[in-house]
Structure prediction request, 564 residues.
Amino acid sequence: MNVKTVTRFGLSALALAITPAHAVELRFDGFATFVVGQMLDDDELASDAQGNLMPYRGFDDQINFQSNNVFAVQARADLGDGLTATAQITAKGADDYDAKFSWAYFSYELTPELTISAGQMRIPYFFYSETLDVGYSYPFVRPPFNTYDIGGFDNISGLKAEWQTDIGNWVSRVTMLAGRADTTLEISQLPDPVKGQVSRLGLFAWSMNYDAFTVRAIYSHANLSMDLNDYLDAVAFAPISAVGINFSDDARHGAYFKNDSASFYGVAFNYDPGSYFVTLESTALNLKNGFMQNPSEGTYLNAGVRIGKFTPYVTLEHVESDYNEHGYRRLMAEVDSADLPQQFGPQLGPIVYSKVSSGLKQLFTSSLKEENAYNVGVRYDFHPAAALKLEYMTSKTKTDLSPQAIAASVDVIF
Amino acid sequence: MNTDLSRKLANAGLLRRYAIGALLLIAPSFASAEIAVIVNLNNKDKITMDDVQKTYLAKTKTFPGGGKIVALDQAEGSTSRVEFVSKVVKKDEAQMKAYWSRLIFTGKGVPPKTLDSDAAVLEAVISNPNAIGFVEADSVTDKVRVIGTL
Prediction:
């Protein structure tokens, strides 16, 4: 066999290898959201531990053009025989338009009813989770703020199975997901972003649709870790050890986030016959350990009427959280057994005791939240692929603040 | 005076005749807005308008006989599509777009392929046993099976 034959043979083998059995079909879709908003009165802003004002819904007393803006492109390659590859690249104003792969996954349609996906994708915690960035897909400027706050754990690397089937006249959709997620949390009290990790996440969601009515339930469990333990040691446990109380690892663990159990429950109802719509969603997050709010619960009701190109809507939201009493009591048990009056005398002992217990209580309750939010807005479908929205938002907080803001957005899909 | 009145009446009659004539001219375009949902002649499945609605909302992906549905769409704003979306899917085009944006950007579905005319839809349905499409009722030929007209 001479060189020429080998080359020819090699080339034809290569040609066979690179000629796909099906033509690869590429599809590009995109969306963009431009938001502008401003607080009406910054006297009503809550402040953090350093006295810095915390923005309300991402807005302060200056007109804010950028932080809620999103621009994204999705590419989907149909490789034939039920195999597809999808990637979504998103640039957000809050990240200085630093473009990131928010999703990148392969899907394989085992049967028309069952699809398996692998890669990086959105965790479908909420009714609107999977299109959270696609303003065009929902009525409001942004989904209910407090309910939809899941601490940045939006995306996961893992495996997903979706099974869609008919049950009588209902369409049933079951989603099962397993994987892990990493995030970086901005915590206002801390100078540096904190790394967080969710591992061994399992999620089960079931939605049933009949005509205009959809009901959805979801349960998820994961192990949660956050790099806050050194911070806690430094700001809370070191000062306390100065008065002679050295907490055991076991007691400290009640305040740490160290591979701890975190469970999430949610239920949603949606009725959308076309001329009007109503959505009710309620969710709860329970953490086994940790010094932050626990459990935290959010519920909202959103309703609107479609009048030609205009869709006026209202959203009422209630969120509240409790503190991790169990974790607090574990630490207090060791404070009690330290017998401070004997160490510091009957005069000073009770004072030290009350300082330590109130400091610990403050640690566990500082991020507690109780808030009622009221939003009124209108969506105007001024173009077949674009909507303009105007929204007025206000809240009543536990500390009797009533922040107000107005926001406008233009949402486009292409 | 009498002649004036009779002339006026005659004019009114003329006007009315014009008006009727004009209506007759417009009428065919109303009639042609009737929409036919069509499948391949070899497709013997019993398909209801509810099934068609579910198909175009990605709630059904297979025919009752098990065949994988290849749904065909027409350009937004075209007479056929506006009528189809309102009568069969029971949404308007903006709602349809928002609905599909939820499927596209969650990876749950890809919208039906858009063809640019009734003729193109007919051709695609004739050549693909799993195709389903909609055209203005007047365009239908005996080479396709009509599931229903609305």
